[in-house]
Amino acid sequence: MNLKKIFPDEQSIPEKVSISFQRQTGYLVNGEIRHWTGPFEKVLSPVYIQNGKGPEQKVLGEYPKLTGKEAMNALDAAVEAFDNGRGLWPTMSVRQRISHVEEFTARMVEKREEVVKLIMWEIGKSAKDSQKEFDRTVQYIKDTINALKDLDRKSSRFEIEEGVIGQIRRSPLGVVLCMGPFNYPLNETYATLIPALITGNAVIFKPPKLGVLLHSPLLEAFRLSFPAGVVNTVYGDGEEVVQPIMKSGKVNVLAFIGTSHVADIIKKAHPSPHRLRSVLGLEAKNTAIVLSDADLDLAVNEIVTGTLSFNGQRCTALKMLYVHQDILPKFIEQFTAAVDRLKAGMPWDEGVDITPLPEEGKAAYLDSLVRDAVSKGATVLNKRGGKHIESIYFPAIVFPVNSDMQLYHVEQFGPVIPVAAFNDIDEPLRYIMESKYGQQVSIFGTGTDEIARLIDPLVNQVARVNINSQCQRGPDTFPFTGRKDSAEGTLSVSDALRVFTIRSLVAAKENSLNKKIFTEIVRENKSNFLSTDFIF
Q: What is the pLDDT of residue 536?
């Protein structure tokens, strides 16, 4: 593998994936796309281009570097749209809100090719995975619509208890600030934005620092599909635009996917944290435990994908491997061979596995973790491990890793795979229990007795235990959360609808007057809340 030739020249880039300079001036506030004339933030692609003197990072485009003034305009628009629960959107019927989201989805699908191309160029995700992210997001929206219909059907009846008539439904919380991550800038952003919207909240949306331009083609779809002020976008430095929004105290829900350090800063800015609901997806250091009776072919296949899908830049990636000493030699042999067979290249290359890393200085950071481990007794086991140039870093399998090494503790969030051996099962269990993270774990083995003994303590340490499979978010109907520093709140198609709402009820004593009032309101469709309307 000649890394020096891995980056293309401009002429060799296939026409269907080539891209021109993207200058985004627009941002959406109060139902209009306003155009920015102030300073812009430059967008650098993780793809480098050969120019005769060596590889040079491609300048992809630029986006508005808004100030606190524009951020507060977006907040004011959202506050006005919600209007203390009296706005058009929060008082609209569920059926009507669904219609608006379906309208948006149809417009979004029309922009698939444009958005997919920008995902590739902005964050270095392969063409296949970029397409998958877009399609999965569309499916998530459709599943959310169906889940809301189901939830609303269950609420379309009255309950009578102890002489009191009541109807219980879910109502919105107010203004939601949505901030997604760079690794799934479309899917995980919309996994909070869409359920927040469809349940009647007004939303302010700030894209991640990496993965901004890909949202630009959808601004017009938002503008045309929703009432003014229901969706608003802000761009720029977090301290400049997020802090004033939070300090206002007018944000009711924070939906943030990123690091716990940043989440703490954002939450602390709110003057009334006791009434701020937070939905947070944070770091993880998910562990794989490979038992002595594991099916090695299955384990290796799952762990290669689990550690290195999208270069390991996933919170759900396997980031620490514990392998039983009895099978360690065979596991290492198969695992290193499988990793070294992976193909490194550009996002549009057919069958590519390892693509450019979007974070500035990431390859150098990963190299520092490996050098630290090697200086303390570890070895890079695979032949191609750790080879890097600019934004390309070929996966490094590092063994043995122990508590003296940084790699043992930090979330590397990239293609470096720490491996430790164990004889006593208490070793990996202790590692998981002492970790400040608690998202998921994977167990590979065939003996039901030992697997069962591991399940019972592990479900009290992490939010999901995977048997003979990699850690993952899906299916989206399953709950997605974490313990300790890994998450706050639960996301899934149905859980997300609950997390952005509160149970509200209308109640009255069961007497003739109240029965007459309820009957008349329902029969003549006078209320969108007090209703027996059944959505098919």
A: 81
Same domain, 211 and 338: no
Token pair, residue 96, equals: 């009507």
CA–CA–CA angle 137, 138, 144 (5° rounding): 85
Query: Are 294 and 264 part of one and the same domain?
Result: no
> What's the domain count of the chain?
2
pLDDT at 162: 96
Phi, psi of 121 (to 5 degrees): -75, -30
Q: Do 309 and 264 share a structural domain? A: no
Percent of the chain with pLDDT over 70: 100
371 assigned to some structural domain: yes
pLDDT digits 0-9 by tens, 421-458: 999 999 999 999 999 999 999 999 999 999 999 999 99
**CA 160/CA 227 separation, integer angstroms:** 37
Of all residues in the chain, what percent carry a pLDDT higher than 90? 97
Q: What is the dihedral of CA 110, 111, 113, 119, to 10 degrees?
A: -150
Where does the pLDDT of residue 352 fall: very low under 50, low under 70, confident under 90, or very high at 90 and above? very high
Residue 214: count of CB within 10 angstroms of its CB: 26
Look up the domain containing 328 and give its range: 286-483
**CB neighbourhood size of 170 (10 A):** 19
Tell which of 436, 452, 483 closes a domain: 483
Residues 255 and 290 in one domain: no
Question: Strand, helix or coil at 39?
Answer: coil
Tell me how far apart the alpha carbons of residues 465 and 336 are, in angstroms, rounded to a whole number. Answer: 25
Please name the helix (run of DSSP H) or strand (run of DSSP E) that holds residue 321, with its range, or none. strand 318-324
Question: Alpha-carbon torsion 226, 231, 232, 235, what sign?
Answer: negative
Nearest to 339 by CA among 282, 376, 380: 380
> Could you tell me if residue 17 is inside a domain?
no
Structural domain contains residue 254: yes
Assigned domain for 133 exists: yes
E runs forming strands in 432-522: 437-438, 440-444, 464-467, 483-484, 487-488, 501-509
Residue 407: which CATH number? Answer: 3.40.309.10
CA–CA gap between residue 182 and residue 495 (Å, rounded): 23
Whether 269 and 339 map to the same domain: the answer is: no
Residue 52 neighbours by CB distance under 10 Å: 6
pTM assigned to the model: 0.96
Q: Do 382 and 246 sit in the same domain of this protein?
A: no
